[in-house]
Amino acid sequence: MGRYNATPEMLQYRLTELVPEHFGLEDFFFLRFYNEAGSSDFELNKVLNMSDVPVPHGVGLNEHYCHRWPAIKQLKELGRKQEEGTLSTAPSEPPQIRAQRSYFLDEEAEYFVLSIARPLALQPGTNSGVSVGFLMNDTFRKRVRCWQDESIPQVEVNLTCERCPLPHERCTDRVAPPTIHQAEQDQARTERAVDELLTSIRDA
Fold it and tell me: What's the whole-model pTM score?
């Protein structure tokens, strides 16, 4: 980035143009989160999804984005260090870079995600986290040979805490109960019970 005087967003966006053309990896997403240093609120203000698998997007106002996505993890860590005074809020700080294999529970799909977080130059006190993720299909595994690198963590993720079935012992990052998931399970049980009742009446 320093060599070409490029911001993390410019680099990631350029990847979404070059990688599909030169490597044939056409299933990808681009996300950008903003976070006020020290705040527990994360604003997703840019989304580009070129795959059939849903990724974080404009969900309900009362939902909380999954905190296991690498950009959010980075923004939390960045804000904590800034509050502690161990890291400056100046945009000259080197960006934080992370790679992660994000396994999407509801879709049984996995993304290879590269994420970069940094303080914003034009918005003091605000940090930005941008991510580009490529669907790990057969084409990806043939083209990208480092996908099995043991230093790259594999993490189960979801859209929001409210939609996620992971119990607490499997996810210590949860910030809200799985209310929507539970409501969907209750609805499914009710529908099954009604179907069974109707079947028993027809067969009587």
Answer: 0.87
